[in-house]
Specification:
The chain is an all-alpha fold. The protein is built from five helices and no strands.
Length: 163
């Protein structure tokens, strides 16, 4: 049972990291390169980001539950790898529930971002949208870095058990 639960931990983290990398380096750049307008690309990336966030939170909860079941100790959530996963969940929730809705509201206010950029490059709405976009990218970068740290720490834990 311990091997199965550890597999759930690694699988959950791998799925979460993989989806983050895929969205960041394949879906988002591809959407902005292939789709007819920046508005369509933004809508596509927003849709994918919502799903990635939901999958990430579910994976994070699964990782933490598997860890608690495997160790039979609530205190295992204070281990560095688990704290990285908790951080990932926190950053994801902030991105999804604090930043993304504000960006969506600004998109609605501006109408077409593409047309808005062409006519109002110095607009406070566009400046705020750009600021929120930078925050969103920073949050996702934080999730990715915390996930890589969690993976390293989980592998290190596994190695320490084998010695």
């Amino acid at each position: 049972m311990s091997t199965f639960l550890r597999t759930i931990e690694f699988l959950g983290l791998s799925l979460w990291l993989g989806s983050d990398v895929f969205l960041s380096f394949v879906v988002a750049p591809g959407a902005f390169r292939i789709l007819a307008s920046r508005d369509q690309a933004g809508a596509m990336v927003g849709f994918a980001l919502w799903w990635m966030h939901m999958i990430g939170v579910v994976c994070g909860i699964a990782i933490l539950l598997a860890r608690m079941l495997r160790t039979r100790a609530f205190s295992s959530l204070a281990a560095p790898a688990a704290l990285c996963v908790v951080l990932m969940i926190g950053l994801t929730v902030v991105s999804q529930h604090a930043v993304s809705p504000k960006m969506a509201a600004l998109r609605t206010q501006m109408g077409s971002i593409q047309a808005f950029q062409a006519t109002a490059a110095d607009s406070p709405l566009l400046a705020e949208f750009s600021r929120l976009h930078r925050i969103s990218v920073s949050l996702e970068s934080g999730v990715l870095l915390a996930g890589l740290a969690a993976m390293y720490l989980m592998v290190k834990e596994l190695g320490a058990m084998g010695k």
